[in-house]
């Protein structure tokens, strides 16, 4: 789908934001041609930085059980495929809004307003999410970010494409993702080297996704293959996911702060009782944000 894009700049950074999904589709320094955001080559992954709502990951058999009825919800929800309206266009700040419609309510039976804010301050982009419940009953939901970041000077045969550093001590503890994209009932450790830099290789993501649900991680930095910091994602969400397709044999990787996660394998319970579920009361709003820092 061809969709309109909007440009936001503060003289240091320049963003492009698509009306479709209110998705960040480009991030550059004004003085440099280098693109930080993955550009959606479908041979690897046709998205760039989608917003995941009202679910993160998958529900079992693509079915959400809500108040005695079953609804079909596919991976990562539907907000990423909805066209948002720009409602704020100020110096260094844009905001986009989308409302529930007949199509969304056929898949998830709540009336809502979802607002996405982008704010620039020097070398920091703050991305805010506001979920407003316009329904007459509590609204359970999940929401997450999925930005893909390009490796500088990527070469497929490089032994290391870059590194990650964290504000958490070794090891990271990941939920096991089983075939089909669901949470298993075990975890595994991801040890960090003594220098704190986790190498990103063509086999780093043979596990599918590293999903640390301990809540310890608040800051992740992507470094180039020489160890120089490139991009930092800073957040206060309970889950940090790390992913790259083809086991890591792609020119980019994703740093994903989440309020939510895929269903446990075989989960058939009520949607509101999913692990890592959020809820907002009728007429109320829920809000959070995360930052992308260009180092």
Record the SSE blueprint.
Blueprint: E1 5-9, E2 13-18, E3 24-29, E4 51-52, E5 63-66, E6 69-72, E7 85-90, E8 93-99, H1 102-107, E9 112-121, E10 124-133, E11 139-141, E12 143-145, E13 148-150, E14 162-166, E15 172-178, E16 182-190, E17 198-200, E18 209-212, E19 219-223, E20 229-234, E21 239-243, E22 252-259, E23 278-280, E24 285-294
Antiparallel strand pairs: 1-2, 2-3, 4-12, 5-6, 7-8, 8-9, 9-10, 10-24, 11-23, 12-22, 13-22, 14-17, 14-19, 15-16, 18-21, 19-20, 20-24, 21-22
Can you tell me about this structure?
By secondary structure, the chain is an all-beta fold. It has a single domain, classed as Beta-galactosidase, Chain A, domain 5, CATH 2.70.98.10. The protein contains one helix and 24 strands. A nine-stranded antiparallel beta sheet has the order 7-8-9-10-24-20-19-14-17, with no helix packed on it. Strands 4, 12, 13, 18, 21 and 22 form a six-stranded antiparallel beta sheet that branches. The longest helix has 6 residues. The protein is globular and about 55 Å long. The relative contact order is 0.19.
């Amino acid at each position: 789908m061809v969709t309109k894009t909007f440009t936001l700049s503060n003289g240091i950074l320049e963003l492009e934001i698509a009306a479709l999904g209110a998705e960040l589709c480009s991030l550059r320094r004004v003085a440099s041609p280098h693109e930080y955001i993955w550009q959606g080559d479908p041979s690897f992954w046709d998205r760039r930085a989608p917003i995941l709502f009202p679910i993160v990951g998958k529900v079992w058999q693509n079915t959400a059980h809500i108040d005695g009825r079953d609804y079909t919800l596919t991976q990562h929800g539907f907000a990423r495929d909805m066209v948002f309206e720009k409602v704020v266009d100020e110096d260094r700040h844009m905001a986009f809004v989308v409302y529930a419609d007949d199509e969304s309510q056929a898949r998830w039976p709540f009336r809502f307003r979802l607002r996405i804010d982008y704010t620039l301050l020097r070398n920091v982009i703050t991305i805010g999410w506001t979920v407003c419940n316009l329904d007459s009953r509590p609204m359970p939901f999940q929401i997450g970010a999925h930005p893909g970041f390009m490796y500088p000077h990527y070469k497929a045969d490089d032994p290391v494409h870059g590194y990650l550093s964290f504000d958490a001590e070794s090891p990271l503890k990941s939920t096991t993702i089983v075939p089909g994209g669901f949470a298993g009932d075990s975890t595994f450790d991801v040890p960090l080297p003594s220098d704190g830099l986790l190498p990103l290789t063509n086999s780093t993501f043979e596990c599918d996704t590293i999903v640390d649900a301990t809540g310890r991680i608040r800051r992740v930095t992507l470094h180039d293959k020489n160890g120089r910091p490139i991009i930092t994602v800073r957040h206060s969400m309970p889950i940090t996911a790390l992913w790259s397709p083809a086991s890591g044999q792609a020119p980019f990787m994703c740093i994903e702060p989440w309020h939510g996660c895929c269903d446990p394998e075989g989960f058939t319970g009520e949607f509101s009782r999913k692990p890592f579920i959020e809820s907002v009361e009728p007429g109320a709003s829920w809000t959070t944000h995360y930052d992308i820092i260009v180092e």
